[in-house]
Amino acid sequence: MGNLYLAYREGFPKALESTFIENIDGSKISYRELEEQSAQYASGFEALGLEAGDRVSIQVSKSPEVIFIYLACLRSNLIFHPLNTAYKETELSFFLEDAKPSIFICDKRNYANLSALDITESPKNIFTIDSEDKESIQGIKKEGDHEVVDCSSDHVAALLYSSGTTGKPKGIMLTHGNIGSNAKALKEAWGFNKEDVLLHALPIYHVHGLFVALGCVFLSGSKVLWTDSFNTDQAIDLLPRCTVMMGVPTYYTRLLNHSNLDKDVVRNIRLFISGSAPLLEDTFDKFLKKTNHYILERYGMTETNIICSNPLDGERKSGTVGIPLPDLNIRIVDDESNILSAQEIGNIQVRGPSVFNSYWNLPKKTQEDFTADNYFNTGDKGFIDLDGYLSIVGRTKDMIISGGLNVYPKEVESLIDSLEGVEESAVIGLEDDDLGERVVAIVVLEKESVLSDEDLISTLKDDMAGFKVPKSIYFVENLPRNAMGKVQKNILRDIYNEETNN
What we know:
The chain is α/β, with parallel strands linked by helices.
């Protein structure tokens, strides 16, 4: 495959004046502008002296400019490193210290607060995204053509971070081949074509909105209706102009609660796709009843891109994430690595061209997470039914998915436990009709501590992204433990799920 940009460009319409993005204000960006703007940024990167493999970190609000920069990184064989806009100083300090980017692009607020970051050496080049700022990244652009850098499909295209149960984020290196092979498989699996119009309300610091959604668009030369975020009223207004919508389950639960959602609103939609978190069977059934559409659920991870999908043509089974994509092999094994039969629950392992090869600067962790025959241990538990459909039943890595975003309990627990007056804590996810799961903390206070739940939540909001902050805090005298001293979070989930449902 080589450079991913060349694969994307093959899918662009022959008439480059065709619309790539249409904004809600009616303004448009053509594929020609996409080509020209990405070329100008790529030339600008080269003028700054960036070399293949250098990292470009970016933490800005969703905008088409981010796509230009992403494609410029591909063209130049640089490593694109998108960051969640909700990350605060402590989190941002870790990512910049670990990735050591040559360029950091941020909004004006973060630019003004860079001196507060705890990093040994600041990135050599720091820019804002706003065109009106004298420090704007848009000032580096160089007019003229740019020759796409020749590279192999094994070169790293993007660096994304995903925490683990230890709480320390891991950098996941995705190659041109990882992203490109998956995009091609999804374009075929979901039938994307040049007539499609995708409602894009997803963030683009995430695999879902950046590689999955836009990859299908690039390869098919289709159009995007672009919104800064998901707004239910706005989505209801835009759906009649779209043929495809991708979203997290929360989007669908919110649509279901809108009085104007009916069959007429979705009359032109050929496909609703859900991912990034489990879709409840109740949501699947209610959406079918209200719209006559079967939501297509799929399954993937940052480390693997998309692994499975329910079929475009064929039965879409609620409660399952479908069948493996072409060239991806999935197996279910027990804790001794014995392969299990259909219907038996075990650990999900996957191997294929879209699966990453290694973590950033963590060779030992890479070795731990791959088997001798190169299957990746996903950390999820599930089973494959007699028809070959995969169902996910749990996550051994104890991750919480709230509103489609990953929350790693250990990271939140570590911060809570560091606070004066706290003895220990356990963070769990509880069922939530809107978010899928909401973050909850069970806290043991030190004797004579007078901390309140408001105190804790207020402090946490200053130090971490809002989606990670517990929605509720419960105080207890002791946490339940097994004979080995391990906190029994399953018991906590049972207790507080029952308590909040009563």
